[in-house]
Amino acid sequence: MLRAFTYSVDMAVVPITHERDRLLEAAVALRHEVATRILGQDPVLDEILIALIAGGHALLVGVPGLAKTLMIRSIAEATHLDFRRIQFTPDLVPSDITGTEVMEEDQASGRRTFRFVPGPVFANIILADEINRTPPRTQAALLEAMQEARVTASGETRALPSPFFVLATQNPIEQEGTYPLPEAQLDRFLFDIRVGYPAEADELAILRSTTGAPSRPLSPVLSGEDALALQRLARDIPAAEPALRYANALVRSTRPDEPHAPAIVKRHVRWGAGPRAGQALILGAKAHALLQGRLAVSPGDIRRVALPVLRHRILPTFAAEAEGVTSERIVGELLDTIKPPSSEVRV
Prior knowledge:
The chain is α/β, with parallel strands linked by helices. The protein has one domain (about 5-80, about 165-345): Magnesium chelatase subunit I, C-Terminal domain (Helicase, Ruva Protein, domain 3, Orthogonal Bundle). Helices cover about 45% and strands about 20% of the residues. The chain contains 14 helices and 13 strands. It has helices at about 20-35, 40-55, 70-75, 95-100, 135-150, 185, 200-210, 225-235, 240-250, 265-270, 275-290, 300-310, 320, 325-335, and strands at about 5-10, 55-60, 85, 100-105, 110-120, 125-130, 150-155, 155-160, 165-170, 190-195, 270, 315, 340-345. Strands 3-6-9-2-10 form a five-stranded parallel beta sheet. Strands 1-13 form a two-stranded parallel ribbon. The chain is globular and about 75 Å long.
């Protein structure tokens, strides 16, 4: 059993400014604006917004009809950011995403030249719809864009717009004709967000609001400059050393060869999370703290983002899958086993 830590945080590390308050109000307004159209998915909206502010990409997994695509479209509509949707299909090739060169002829001189036509990946928000329906070669083209914020096309490397945010959707029940994402690409997603069925009252409200007159257009409330400023502000939020050690302890406890790994990990896990998971925990926790109006990371922030950060980075054994032991259950037991630090916050 890992021991708990105690730490103290000076809340004055990040100065309180009108600009910070304005940015926070814009982030809250974005969530409120999207929530007027998307009902019954509050935790999902929160996690998408956290990923956006943390500067990461998100994978949304859920059965058809749960408004995954509409949710992403609504977020794009409520911002001043450029948005593109890519419908992934088995016949999609890398150039369909990154762009291609076309030959043009000057009518006056007859001279022929090549001009690069950017693909849909050259946008701020990318909806990668049903990403597991395209072959690995095309998935790899998106992988470079997600990791490097640039693409290589026609032998030349081109930078992508900033901010750059990929929201991919995946249907978990249709496996025929799909290409499961490899672990290396899954690791590039900051969050794996699971979209579930709405509660009964929320579903009734959905029926009431979507079967009448068309809903009003959403008002853009967040600019690209604001999104980048929020990402910088989140990184300025301090994380005390014990909070870093707690996040590190959670990640290392997912590895079956670690001496202090819990029994469920040693028995049911083939591969655990790598160092990128620790980075995602801290960045996600900072973004969550910022949205809560706090200026330091608490254990609760780390625990809030632990499931979407770790569920796709833990690979259960075949025996675990046969016994119904999922990565979500493993993460839940880790959160019960690894005790968080106690915090003493000075205002």
